[in-house]
Amino acid sequence: MKKLFIIFILIASVRAEAQNLISGFVTSTKGDSLPGVSVYIKNTYDGTSTNANGYFSFKTSAKGSQFLVAQSVGYKNQEFPIELNGDPIELEIQLKEAIDQLNAVTITAGAMEASDENKAVVLKPLDIVTTPSAMGDIIGAFQTLPGTSTVGNDGRLFVRGGDASETAIFIDGLQVGNAFGTTASNVPTRTRFSPNLFKGSFFSTGGYSAEYGQALSSALALNTVDIPLRSQGDISIMSLGGGYTQTLVGKNNSLTASANYFDLAPYQSLIKQNFDWERAPYGWDVSLAANQKVGNGGILKAYFQKESNGLKLWQHKPGDTGRGNLIGIKNDYTYAQSNIKLIGENNWSYTGGISYSDNIDQFNLGGQNILQQSRLVHAKGVAIKDFSDAISLKSGIESTWSIFEETLVDEGLSRDFLDQRYNVFVESDYYLSNQLIFRGGLRSGYSVLSDEFWVDPRASVSYKFEHEGQMSFAYGTFSQLPLAKFRVINNSLGNTEAEHFILNYFISKNGRTFRAEAFHKSYDNLITFNGSELAPEDVTLSGNGFAKGMDFFYRDRKSIKETDFWVTYSFVDSKRKFDSFETKVQPGFAPKHNASIVAKHFVSALQSQLGMSFSFNDGYAYTNPNLAGEQNAKTKSFQDLSLSWSYLPKPNLIIHFACSNVLGRDNIFGYQYAPESNDTGLVPGMPVTQGAPRFLFMGIFLTLSKDKTANQLNNL
Fold first, then answer.
1. Parallel, antiparallel or unpaired: strands 167-171 and 218-224
2. What span, in angstroms and rounded, lies between the C-alpha atoms of 645 and 315?
3. What predicted TM-score, i.e. pTM, was given to this entire model?
């Protein structure tokens, strides 16, 4: 027994002599002590955790060349080679912060994103269809966001002093031609696409990604639904018409077909109109969407839409007591696209697709027949490589064909142009840490028609504070070829240009979002011309201007139970020499002060959602020829209070009612004047007003499905 005890003591002493002592401190790259870090010898059980001061100490019997591992949540694992020869080892270890895409800083300057992946949600499709003033129109809802102006006699998207043509619209990354319906002068239009198509959106008020081009002010990128939740049929019966949508969903694919018809004649016979309609607007559309999952996380999509519509309207002439000129419009539109997303090996992913837009307008302007046709084909391929959790690179190529033809039918005269445009872009995101990200990009282009090559650099940087708010700065140059109506006159016209500077503060926490942004935008090479009879020498790129200001956005889903509301204010100081103006003036589409409030409250006892929206601006500048100067007058302020009520008597049945301009305010958007003075020496004019004191909408939406709780909001 005594011998066994002596042998045990000898073995233990030998073992103790063979142990190595390893100690040290673990800190972050900022020098802060890191407690709770696991420190151990790789492929052994020897190790420990750091204390409150970041200190660790342990012994190991391992020998020779080994690896010491330091591991902690939120930091990159690190391995250090060590040599165990019996001598004590002291280390000072610095751990680099791991990039957590869910919690890391994001680029927010100029950007407002709503998607399933992004935490900074602004407007989802459900928000669009339930915003009272929008009346189900995508652009109507975006007009309640910062940086936008409500121009009620147009209906398109005006951003930070820019004309509506300065905003480009993309669906799944592909450009859409003629995204708005054709209409008469001073009669507002709408987007052609239903909000139900989309799962999210990216709306930029400036400084947007190098992936997008041909827009001086803004990019609106809409992303379609992948695979709907279930098979169902949706019936819509509205005060303006009706429609039916059938959705079929398989395990890895889906097919959705839709048909709709509208006619405002019955409605306008009941509701007083300010316009003198000969034939109220009418039309129909059909669409087909097919989706198929492919590979590991990939998806193939195809979409087709065909529509036809028209109207006839008597437009009064200033100083004339008659009905004026009869304007007739017949529009036929076709849009088709297909795109694919594939997940490759080694952190590569690929997207690509092609879109086709074909718009045919037949105008009868006071007896003169004009035919216009514009086609746009856009093909695009993008490759994305994630080199690490900190560095990613996006690169892509594009080719665009633009065709425009204009014909005076009775005279047999026509003019046209064909342009091929090629673009290459590259953009990289570099996360220096969870708090700091840099994005840099270049977009180049070449136009065959104008024989012009250009390069637009763009850059953004964003820093996230400890309290979770973040600051962003964005800079970029942006190029856009002039509208087709000018290029068909002068084929050699090159790019108009803009330069953006944006400073942004953003925080989103606990159901509340606040965003403040200051901006400066300069314009160069804007279109200018003399008179109304245009010849090639009359249309030049000699205009310039600027837009500067700030805007604020606050959204709150938390403070008031069952209530979601947002408040927006924008200040825009914009002046430009463009169009037929001889000096820099405030554009009529750019009011200085713009504000909106949107609130939605769900009343459980009534199974209803009540909605309210209020929009305001300080009035529109216009030129009164009876006074000296240009843009020398301003209308009274624009105000619109809209209300809505959505009632769900059954889970699959929705009854929706909405009314715009409830108070019946007589909003004026400017004035039209006669070409010459009357007997009194004054030039007669008349106000440009809204189509009716109010717009009323009522719809009944019934869903047919095996799931009796399904309704048309489920897929939004």
1. parallel
2. 35
3. 0.86
